[in-house]
Amino acid sequence: MDIETTIVQWLNADPELEGIPASLSAPRDRPGKFVTVERVGGMEGPYRSTPIVAVQAWDSEGRYEAAQLAETVRRRLMGLTGIDRIADVSIESVVHLPDPGPPFEERYQILIQTTVASMGA
Prior knowledge:
The protein is an alpha+beta fold.
């Protein structure tokens, strides 16, 4: 399972996040609000994997708005267990992580760990 693509598709299909694009990297022409998803670690085994994924919520309006977007994304990520093969999701941290730019941009990072059933050895 490509966990990054799975999460991007999940977020892009979520009605609560309609109009806020999620992608694997920051778009060249950045919209006011967007979300990026990047696998940053985790274990791979014969029967399960536990990917660690950084999900970043970006909002050019300000820190408060970025925090609100991050909270919405965090809540939606808890629903990933509704996807076949994803057994568990835990939120490891939510941190303010502004992008110094240029241009400076507010963002929050949500670090999650998922438990995914592998297809077998």
